[in-house]
Every structure is written in C-alpha cells, then in structure tokens.
Specification:
The chain is of the alpha/beta class. Helices cover 30% and strands 19% of the residues. It starts with a strand and ends in an 11-residue tail after the last helix. Bound molecules: iron/sulfur cluster.
Amino acid sequence: MRVGLIDVDGHNFPNLPLMKISAYHKSRGDSVEWYEPLFSGHMDKVYMSKVFTFTPDYPYCINANEVIKGGTGYSYPDGGEELPEEIEHIYPDYQLYKDTFPDTAYGFLTRGCPRGCDFCIVGKKEGRCARKVADLSEFWNGQKNIVLLDANMFACKEWKDLSVQLIESGAWVDFSQGCDIRLMTDEKAEYIKRMKIKQVHFAWDRYEDKEKIVPQFKRFKEITQWDYRKLGVYVLCNFNTTFEQDLDRVYTLRELGYNPYVMLYEKDKLPAKHRLKLLQRWVNNRIIFRSCKRFEEYDGRK
Ligand code: SF4
C-alpha cells in the first residue's frame, strides 16, 4: 500500500501522530512518504494532521483513494478522535523529522489535567485527571533529548516513578507544556532538580493565585538554587486580568528571580499599537527586559 503524509502545520515542530502512523504502516510493509501534490502520484491513503486552529487548511488537491484528517486543528473545540491503541502506543518513526530535529524523542507519559482552565482544551480532550499512559521506553531509546508533551505530569499519582525514569535516562528533558507550580512540593522539586534540564517553565495565569503561588515560586527556587535563565514563567494576558495586574505579575516574577514570558490571548484581535503588544515586546526580549527596569521607561520604537 502507498501511504502519504501531510503535516498541515508545516515542519516547524514534529507531528507525533504522523510519526506513529508512519511507524504503524511501515511495520505492515507499506511504503510511507511525505505527500507532494506534483510528484507523489496516486496514493492508496493520505493522512493529514493539523494541530493548530490558526493554520490554514491544505490548499492542494489530493490524489488518493482515501484521505483521513485528524488533529485539534480540525476538531476544535471538540476533542476529536483518538488514534487506535495499536498506533497510539507504537514507537514513533523519528526518521520523518531526523534532519530538522535530530536525536530527540517525543511523547506523552501522562494524559489529562485536573484543572479546567477556560482557555485550554486539554480537559475536554484528554480528561480532567492526569493518568499515566506510557513508560519512557515506549518512545525513548537512548536519544540525547526528550521532549515531553504532557499537560501536567506532576498531577499524576505516578509522578515519582516517571521522574525516576527521566532521571535515569540521563537525557536532556524538556517539559514542553510546562509544570504546574501550584502542585509543587519539596519532594517534587528535589526530583526535578535531579533531572537534566536546560530550562523549566511554569505558568501564572490567574492573578488571584498570587497569595498561594508566590511562596511556591520562592520555595522551588530555594530548593533548586537555579537562576532566572533556567526558570521561565508564562504570563497569560488579555484574558481576564487588568493591565496593572499584568505588570504586577511581571515585576513580581522578576523580583523572585524568574524570567516572565508574556503570552497574549487572541493576540491577532488586538490593534498593532496596543500597549499589551508593547508589554510583550519589552518582557520577551531578555536583553531589553534586563536593562530597562520599568515598562514606563520602555520606548518600543528604539
Ligand atoms: S493547567 Fe495547563 S494543561 Fe491544565 S487545564 Fe490549565 S492550561 Fe490546560
């Protein structure tokens, strides 16, 4: 069987479902390739995967007996269909992205998140409970880097077992979706400290969490002794906070020794010169943010 793959979002980040689908078909003796509208000719099956809602759909005709579309980009706001079990748990075909993302393993150790943040689809898609779905060996086989796609691994009751697997791998670990500072304990921080991590990031989305979250940030830093270059915090703005609250979160995080990173909700709906966009430019440029201490002194034109 001839199978074609289309990563509708482009090739800027490896598409895990396509890597699993590829592995599955190759294990059955099928031929698998990226679908090229001008060169591929007729295919038996073409899979199209789209993760992001903002990516435009694939614009070309597809010459195939069957076309299967999947991914949050097609199903949002519903969760969409899951991959069949035998594909979901297969070792991914990393050959697909080996040139752009070498020596890196991708996968989920857990699925789900107990929180139901209004702007996030994870609860609807994966359920409101973080549960273990795999051991590391399911998708890692000695690669130098591990990129975890878990929404909230430290909310899972097996976090310790999974942390030990990550520590023992000796690989660089990237919690690409961040860690939940509200669930951090001394013990969890100690385990994170023992992992090989270039940068960990958290999120501070709800301003009203300030009283609880600030001591958690302090404690995590005391335990790890990491400096701000290793400690990032996403600050969601333009959702339900005031500008003063946004600034307060940014200043507070800097004082605590963390590196804030402003994320703008529905950024494309804001006018070009909106002050939140200026705030984002100021905070997210590390050099400017460290040299210009106050937002009021920042002139975005320079
Ligand atoms: S904590 Fe993170 S993953 Fe969980 S619902 Fe909120 S934004 Fe989504």
